[in-house]
Amino acid sequence: MTLLGAGARDAAVRHDPDQTFPEIRDAVRKLCARFPGTYWRALDRDRAYPTEFVRALTEAGFLSVLIPEEYGGSGLGLAAGAAVLEEIHRSGCNGGACHAQMYTMGVVLRHGSRTQKEAYLPKIASGNLRLQAFGVTEPDAGTDTTRISTFAKRVGDTYVVNGRKLWISRAEHSDLMVLLCRTTKREEAAKPSDGMSVLLIDMREAVGNGLTITPVRTMLNHATTELAFEDLVVPAANLIGEEGKGFRYILDGMNAERILIAAECIGDAKFFIDRSSSYARDREVFGRPIGENQGVQFPIARAYVQMTAASLLVDHAAALFEAGAPCGTEANMAKLTASEASWYAADMAVQTHGGFGFAEEYDIERKFRETRLYQVAPISTNLILSHVATHVLDLPKSF
Ligand SMILES: Cc1cc2nc3c(=O)[nH]c(=O)nc-3n(C[C@H](O)[C@H](O)[C@H](O)COP(=O)(O)OP(=O)(O)OC[C@H]3O[C@@H](n4cnc5c(N)ncnc54)[C@H](O)[C@@H]3O)c2cc1C
User: Fold this and answer.
1) Residues 236-290: pLDDT tens digits?
2) Which among 28, 37, 114, 200 is most buried, taking Cβ atoms within 10 Å?
3) Looking at ligand 1, which residue's alpha carbon is closest to its atom 9?
4) 138: pLDDT strictly greater than 60
5) Was domain 253-392 assigned CATH 2.60.120.330?
6) Running DSSP on this structure, what letter comes out for residue 188?
7) Which one of 2.30.110.10, 3.30.420.40, 2.40.110.10, 3.40.50.720 gives the CATH number of domain 131-247?
């Protein structure tokens, strides 16, 4: 479905948020059509994991698009991954159950040893190993990641891990987890961001042997959890890269994550715009379609304008990432604008649907709850504004 009337645009000169990767988009749309609103609503009620949906995406190869061909993936760039996630969200589905399978492996790919890459990446590409969990946030550190205190103490050829993590999504549905922990205490490190390391945790061995997972029920169906580590023994061979340099490794993974999640927001915004345009054309009140009223059509048009502007930023950030250029600011700005565009569109969709915006069977209220997350996670709006203020505009740092 096009959002502008037939013949009303020239994709060659205008930015068309649908023009990239048409075959991938079409294939993702077809797959998603097998998982309609009824499927997601039932899972949402029970806070259950979309196992069949994740299996279908895995079997179709969509979650391994970023893994190089030599390790069994498609070897495509970040923009292709963004197109996959955008279409999932535009279709009314949700990639939150499995999007980390796409980008978390980047830490292994970019910083792992040859042995680690050969051991893990082909199995992640085939779906035999699920790398869905990314363990960074802690209850007492919040956004200030350098204050994490989960500690891995080197003992012979192992690390012994103790501490807590919060909001670690998909931990119950993952075979492996990328864990950021301290190997040197903050006060003993040369700078706060030193002394953190990345360990690959084999969840199949860890759970019940030093790792306890407790689900956290939230306003959306996101399979998020709290983790407690009590003397969990991890082989030293599971250290990714060099000890003490983990924060740097995690940061470039975070840029990929922010760009891909921004693409999910663009998909959500398109979902709300598609549904609202269609509803406003069909719903008649006072003897005419509600969409004839400019008070109804202008917010839909505004949502389209905001989504298009945000999608340009997402494309720009993805292009920089693919070129290997610094893209921290652009990834942040893409995530901020896309999450605000999707939230504006969500609010607009509720208003356009009137009472039906609140009815489960329209899927608007579910997507409304889902898309609200993105202004908080994986990084909250204030922290992005602070990054732009201090790193781009040279304003004084407030913390
Ligand atoms: C459903 C869900 C899934 C998640 N999944 C994962 C996951 O898989 N892995 C993972 O590691 N984490 C995950 N997170 C954590 C997420 O990344 C954090 O919630 C997010 O980064 C915000 O951190 P916080 O909740 O600790 O908020 P806090 O850091 O406590 O901040 C609270 C509020 O204060 C604001 N604030 C804080 N400091 C400042 C400041 N200096 N200036 C201005 N404003 C400030 C923030 O912007 C925010 O609005 C998830 C969170 C949720 C809710």
Assistant:
1) 999 999 999 999 999 878 999 999 999 999 999 999 999 999 999 999 999 999 9
2) 28
3) 168
4) yes
5) no
6) G
7) 2.40.110.10
